[in-house]
Design goal:
By secondary structure, the chain is mainly alpha-helical. The chain has a single domain, classed as Serine Threonine Protein Phosphatase 5, Tetratricopeptide repeat, CATH 1.25.40.10. The longest helix has 24 residues.
Length: 218
Amino acid sequence: MKLDFFAKLCMVIGLGSATGLAAADAVEEALHPIQVEWAAIKYRTPEKQQEARYHTLAQQAHKLAEAHPDRSEPLVWEGIALSSEAGAKGGLGALSLARAAKNKLELALKHDSHVLKGSAWTSLGTLYYKVPGWPIGFGDKAKAEEMLNKAVALNPDGIDPNFFRGEYLFERERYGEALKSLETALHAPARPGRELADSGRRQEIQALLAKVRKEMEN
């Protein structure tokens, strides 16, 4: 049986800037199928099949990270795939995957604190508020909020940083702030080549907005 704190431990990000045009083309072209596959797993794959497919995706991202040790973007996507695998696995058995994801994201941020316009901060902050705290896990609500705020500062109009910050604020019962973040996320610019991810995320935003408004009416 899956535990609640891993029920939704999945996320998506956008492509970031690169240090060189030729290198950016090579890495971004290699990342794009990983991004597309992530969205297909999350939004079009039965839950029972997701864990194995996320595992394969993490392996693909790991190979890309090894091939480009000077780049942080593949590390971020390896972290995303691992955290998504943890969410699909569920329960305390997923904690090792969550820790592995945390390590990859922290390494990416050590190399480039602005990687993918703050998407690593979004992913790491989400881990920190979804994973249980000590003595079970490394979760920390205060650190989570700090990281999510950094993500929004780097990408103030982005769909993902605003969605996950809004989700965090909703769970903290800060409904007015959550409403503002989620409305910003809902009207975020479309990401070319990420149509399925954007469509799926907007459905999640609308569902959470309905919950926020219901709470504010009570």
